[in-house]
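[agent] plan:
  1. take the single chain provided in the ticket
  2. run structure prediction with default settings
  3. attach structure tokens to the ticket
  4. add a short note for the reviewer (M.T.)
[agent] executing step 1
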Amino acid sequence: MTTTKAELNTQDFIAEFGQHELVSDFSEEAINAILSQYKRVQSESNDPASIAWEPLFNDALEWDASGVVYELSNEVKEYASEIINMIRNADIGISADTKEKFDSLEYDLSDEELLQFFRSELMKSPDYFNEVAAILARENDFTKLDNGKYLILGAY
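[agent] step 2 finished; step 3 output follows
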């Protein structure tokens, strides 16, 4: 079904399509953001009625902080210096034992090596996921939702 701009609001959309397989996994906040994108795409089109909502939902994702870090784990090392500085500044909390090991190795290893060495310890810290997800979201233009999750929009 193609929805026209005039009939589109989040609550009505959820009532009609909330159980649809493309929609059911998204929070209301994410649905609202995706529909805002849909409205923008329609407003930029010469034929707004031909724009279907389904591709926007199909191409979108909603991840929590750990999902962002896991899914983009290959990009984390690119931000090793920034992450290591967060550990130095205590923005990312680590245990006292880990901090002691970190302090003893800090000048013997590169930031990337430190990140790799302490990876398993860092994975125990919620701060790590939140801070690294924020970096990855910023660098990849993800939208942080009020519910703490990140919305990744498709190509539109």
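[agent] step 4 note for reviewer: The beta strands are 61-63, 143-144, 150-152.
[agent] ticket updated
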